[in-house]
Amino acid sequence: MQVKPIKIVILYLLFNLTWILFGSALITLLTFIFPFGRETLEIIKDVFLVLVTAVLLYVAINSQQQLLLDSIKQYRNLFYSNPTPMWIYDRNTLKFLDVNNAAIVVYGYSKEEFKTMTILDIRKEEDHEKIIESIHKIADTVNISGNWEHFKKDGAKLTAYISSHKTIFDNKECVMVMAQDVTTQLEQERQLKLLFSTERALKEELERNIQLIEQSLEEKQRLAEVIDRIYNMVMITDTLGRIIWVNQAFVNFTGYTLAEVVGQTSAFLQGRKTDPEMQAKIMEAMRQNDFSVFEILNYTKAGKEYWVELTISAIYNEEGQVIRYIAVQNIITERKLSEDKIKRQYKLLKRLAWTNSHAIRKPVASLLSLVSLSEDTATLQEMKEINGHIGVCSKELDVLTRDIGKVMGSIDLPH
Asked: d(Cα 269, Cα 251) in Å, to the nearest integer?
């Protein structure tokens, strides 16, 4: 147990005051008890006082020494067990005088190796002049030197945040240094700055993309409005030919709503008179990227036939891949009806031409023969017979002429 100095002083004062006040009376009392002279007892009293004083001084000095030793031990524990690398170097020679355990672990040198080195040995050569200059400027207070580049025993670099202060160690002017390894912290800060810079760049890029998307949406909206208002029917499908969207002209003409056609192929528009091979040809052309023009017979929701001229185009993405197909359907029903009518008229005219070249030729040839024969006839009976044949041929020719007239009447020739 350590005795505080103030207690020793109080005890010393109390003892001396008591001895001064009651020492003479005590000597007088002792002369009656012990067979010593008064002078001997006075000497014994003085010796006792010296002994007590010596004991009190010993206790006080020992207590202070113990406090000092405890303080030194505590300081050493704080120094050696500090998790941050620390060392003490001679301010004049710059040699390491002592290092703590953290410095040994972080830098890789043993304590003996450190003591053979100077602080310049762990610094890069171009910093030596600045280091020596900064040592001369060290104040008596704590000095913050900031970040310095250090080298470990294996040559690896680290960044240390240096703080130091002057001290006396082994009766030498020294400097105690605390070197906090901030390499990871600085790298994290660098990464954060990089991430922040990247994030800001991405944000700016995103804002630009949003503007482009908004512009694109506006353009697409305007394009959709234009497509929606044109007379031609427009259909957009995926790469498998399934309908994604149709314009209002399609809805108005066919009678099908957008909800009814989405997800279907255009085959649902075909009917009993549609060429069954045409849809297969269309799908094969899409697979081959052969965007020809097709004519196909379709049916409205009410079952009404209509012909369309189908033009298919591909929609590509930025990588050049087909992502959609757009089909524009131009109604050609009237043209197809006109074509059919012309075909029918052609057949009638062809039949009429055959009739003219074959059926009429027979009675005409017969009449010509009879007329030629009548020129050589001498008797009246022969003339009557020839006239009879001429009448038959004439009737036959009249019937053919009437038939031709009927056929001609059924043909709607252009004016």
From this structure: 12
